[in-house]
Amino acid sequence: MDQAGERREPTMRDVAALAKVSTKTVSRVINDLPGAGPEVVERVRAAARSLGYRPNLTASSLRRSDRRSATIGVLFEDLSNPFDSALLRAVEDRARHNGVLVLAGSSEDDRTLQGELLVSLSARRVDGVVVMAAGGHQDALQQERERGTPMVLVDRPPTFGGTDCVTTTNRESSREAVLQLASLGHRDIAFLGDRRTLWTSQERYTGYLEGLAQAGLTLREELVRTDLHGADLAETAATELLDLDRPPSALFTAQNLVTVGAMRVLRARDQQHLIALIGFDDFPLADMLEPGITVVRQDVPGLGRKAAELIFARIDGDTSPPVHAVVPAALVRRGSGEIAPSAPR
Amino acid sequence: MDQAGERREPTMRDVAALAKVSTKTVSRVINDLPGAGPEVVERVRAAARSLGYRPNLTASSLRRSDRRSATIGVLFEDLSNPFDSALLRAVEDRARHNGVLVLAGSSEDDRTLQGELLVSLSARRVDGVVVMAAGGHQDALQQERERGTPMVLVDRPPTFGGTDCVTTTNRESSREAVLQLASLGHRDIAFLGDRRTLWTSQERYTGYLEGLAQAGLTLREELVRTDLHGADLAETAATELLDLDRPPSALFTAQNLVTVGAMRVLRARDQQHLIALIGFDDFPLADMLEPGITVVRQDVPGLGRKAAELIFARIDGDTSPPVHAVVPAALVRRGSGEIAPSAPR
DNA sequence: TCCTCCTACGTCAACGTTGACGTAACCGAG
DNA sequence: CTCGGTTACGTCAACGTTGACGTAGGAGGA
Fold first, then answer.
1. pTM of the model
2. Which residue of chain B is at minimal alpha-carbon distance from A90?
3. Percentage of residues in chain B with pLDDT exceeding 90?
4. In chain A, pLDDT over 70 holds for what percent of residues?
């Protein structure tokens, strides 16, 4: 069997020859354009079928005036992360609806890699890109945007103007989580966050501060731990926090993997029923744990749908002012966030 | 700001004009081909940079003799499923290494949709496709394959010849799981499986039968439940099984979501420490549950890497006989699979 | 000195498709 | 019967790029 098949793909010319018409007429039939009589249409269709003809979209988009490739780029941090993949899926569904396919890539939160992928995408002349911006400066994104590429940022807003974005209620929901803990009597609430370069981390931290302030609590700086990228760093930080002379009675973990790391530590010390925990971002089976993990759940499909809507509107020529859409997240109470402080001091 | 930027992309012609050379020379410089003097190279590079020139890969691949698009298609069941997305990520990493991007789509185990996506991919002239075949007949896949498109199937083998595939040790690992349960004294081991049309389900069921036979146990047909697509159906089935007059003392759940459904039921009835459970396919946090869930863990990155290796070899013209690569899975003992039968009868 | 070979370019056409435009045949109205 | 309009095609060139091939000029050998 020929894996690298040598057969030339049939072209419009082949179909035209078989149907005894011009290639232009074949083009009309294939694209359902008027100007072809019924019997010619039938003849062309039959010829195309018998040759196994498939239109070549790359040639077509090269020649077409709108220059559309019917392809968009999606550049997320890590496609194997449940958050990212759920987002991708939501975008994909909306894209399919428009007959558009998705070129997907993982930037690993690395600006260089993100830039390279962006170049690869633009070399393929995608109609637009949906990007989860890597932390730090966004020069490459801005440059691409200024070249005219329709662009929507998700999860994190642009640091430059003129570009749509979709984010969640990071600050408000974080504040709500902290207020929930405070209302139970917690006075020592720790913050464990991801990289400080990430906008979401900053926003969630701000929400934490607002929550403390609103509850009349004072910030204990030693209870704030940031730059915890990955569950392992989170574990270390959680251990250190719990080993303090005056340890926190509640933890607010501001990211997925940070929550997991903190959970591991609590379980290892058998403190999961003593120390309250609220995490940002839901994860599968959070309800099956003992206790169930209270989380701020983002509306991931909602984020993806909105991002897709925006990018397709822009591709279709919508020139209204840039939008910053905010999709509300919700506090899901499952137990771990409803633990009262054990021994008030 | 112009979201739908009207600026025409600079072309080789523009660069050539500015550098006062022919487009062919620009082509040589851009592609690092010999036949351009050092100062011309510098002039062209400068012109390209100042115009912000970006090569148009679609035009290039149209004209090139090898006709490569440097893009492959990936068609999985559901990109938001952790198994699928981990697989995608592994393929993507290998692809990036070759300067290749990935067009990704979810077929939802629907043959029609899979066929449509396949057509979309081939219209974009992808260099090859990696497919998780939808259940049932694979006519569309076979047809595409016979047109000469390099193709590798993952997770499920082709029902037609001449095509590479990569699968895991479904049967052997299932047998091992059942033998593990039998060795603890379990005689009533239930099987809960996904759609019977799926090859993996069939293989895992066969492994279950082999395990029973090898342990000298007789099959009780009422303990076999299949076609459980999704956690909800699995819940119903598990409930019914546990309500039998002579309920199983151990469950072998042959798929991800089926395991989750069964777990929910066990927990709801507070039997998670009484009834043994082994699931096929690992999932995040399986170790954090009480008890930890014993699973057959597939080597997902290994599967993805192998699939990518095969597809790129074929794209590069490897015409050796088709391969069926098998990546070993491993039994991960965490507790739920090590529960002995409570009251032997 | 003349011829050959090589280097560094340029010219031209073609990849598969479609926009712009041309034209022959036909139709209905005046 | 003529004229304007419409329908159903066809012709041609161009999208951005590269393969095939041509050529001027210089280097080098006999």
1. 0.92
2. B80
3. 91
4. 97
